Amino acid sequence: MNKLNHFEKFSFTANFDINIDELEHAYLKLQQQFHPDALLHKSQDEQDAAMINSININEAYKILKNPIQRAIYLLKLEGINIDDDNCKIKPIHETLITVLELKEKISESKDIQEIEEIKNYLEEEIAELMQLVKENFAHKNYDLAAQNLIKIKYFDKTIADLKLKKQNINS
């Protein structure tokens, strides 16, 4: 189980577009098979192996269930690790400018309504970008998928900043 990629663990083809219900079903089936509590009557080695498998299954499920994490993982399978500072694909200038402008707007804002509008804008942008990522993967355009995912990650981080700003305004 440890040598399989996350898709193979659930008998899926490595693809961005997966059926989440089927993933859930396969996950529960594997958890029943490898859950350490179900193997208490087995040897310690078998119990230890089951524990490792259970941890790996949980990690794979967590990544595949989340579309952003699933896309990042798919890129890693293609040799593109956007989480690595040495990745050949860097954010484009436009993305950085957009994020800097948003962060400036957020830092100056003292209005909950404006914060909500920025959050809604970012969520819409992320949804549109995720559709592009889906298309990028369908056409095997991994560099463009990586570029869109980098932008999504920046926008997702900005949403987290918005939540903190909102808490600070409310308190």
Structure, described:
- The protein has 171 residues and is an all-alpha fold.
- The protein has 7 helices and no strands.
- 20% of the residues are buried.
Number of helices: 7
Mean model confidence by pLDDT: 92
Instruction: Estimate percent helicity.
Output: over 70%
* CATH architecture tag of the largest domain: Up-down Bundle
Q: What's the main sheet like?
A: none
Total strand count, please? 0
Q: Please state the overall shape, judged from the principal axes of the Cα atoms.
A: globular
What's the CATH H-level superfamily name of the largest domain? HscB, C-terminal domain
Number of domains: 2
The CATH class of the largest domain turns out to be Mainly Alpha
Unreliably modeled segments = none
Secondary structure category: mainly alpha
Order of helix and strand elements from N to C terminus? HHHHHHH
Roughly how many Å is the radius of gyration?
20 Å
CATH fold-level topology of the largest domain: Monooxygenase
Question: Concise description?
Answer:
This protein has 171 residues and is mainly alpha-helical. Helix content is 73%, strand content 0%.
List keywords for this structure.
Monooxygenase, Helix Hairpins, 2 domains, 171 residues
